[in-house]
Amino acid sequence: MSLTAFITGATSGIGKATAILFAQNNIRLVICGRRTEKLQALKEELSELTEVHTLQFDVRYKEEVTKAIESLPSEFNQIDILINNAGNAHGLHSIQEGNIDDWDAMIDGNVKGLLYVTKMIIPSMIERNNGFIVNIGSIAGKEVYPNGNVYCASKFAVNALNKAMRLDLNQHNIRVSAIHPGLVETEFSDVRFKGDSERAKTVYQGYKALQAEDIADIIHFVVTRPYHVNIEDLIVYPTAQASASILKKDEN
Ligand code: NDP
Ligand code: 8X3
Predict the structure, then answer these.
(1) How far apart are CA 214 and CA 217, in angstroms?
(2) Which terminus of the chain has fewer Cβ atoms in its 10 Å neighbourhood, N or C?
(3) Domain count of the chain?
(4) Per-residue pLDDT tens for 111-152?
(5) What range defines the domain where residue 130 resides?
(6) pLDDT by residue (tens digit) across 94-107?
(7) Which of 69, 107, 162, 188 should be mutated for ligand 1, with most atoms under 8 A from CB?
């Protein structure tokens, strides 16, 4: 019987690319996000390849998360692979100039949202003594960069939770992995700069950034190792990037 994956943030970027690659590899999907029309379009695109169920909810709201996951039909409620991917940065300001609503959005989405979803999915994994949780962290969760403050803090939390999950779920035979990308060309910077697409574009100019498909490929590799193999933690940069703040751009 084929595996079932639950992917948060599947409407764009890394989550969407992962959904496509999983579907091509015959993995059944629960795809999640807030934008219903994007979920629907992806479901239509992938339904020829695999069975797909959509769940529309905002990870920041506990009740929405609970209701959505409880609504899963029986053929989709045994999740083998959870991809905790939903998240974003909001703003890029010093701590003294930061916007508190942005801080709330990052802590609530990137940290609390990940916890709400995980808490709902873990019981059936424990019951079956089987499961895989992949947490999408960031290089921002390994290294703080100027003006990254709260986004970095949220991803440091993901890094800590990844380790915590591995410790606590070890007795239940559940695999846990984190993947920490550097710069990936997605809608991420559009969101960070609140729709200022000119500014967002400059983030990815002058070098070859990682593409969402590169990370999807690595996620797929991680989840298809034999069951006794658990890759705990991976940092993935574009070749042009040496650290959170060192990036070699073409001159001109
Ligand atoms: P995108 O902006 O392209 O995708 C973000 C996804 O998260 C969307 O599908 C969005 O769906 C979903 N999402 C965001 N907030 C919420 C919310 N409150 N509730 C439900 N879904 C939400 O960015 P990426 O693909 O790049 O980002 C995916 C993950 O990768 C994030 O956790 C990000 O922090 C991380 N990452 C990204 C890097 C990059 O350089 N791009 C580098 C390192 C890590 P919708 O809007 O439909 O709700
Ligand atoms: C996204 C990459 O460098 O903007 O997590 O923090 S970075």
Answers:
(1) 5
(2) C
(3) 1
(4) 999 999 999 999 999 999 999 999 999 999 999 999 999 999
(5) 4-236
(6) 999 999 999 999 99
(7) 188
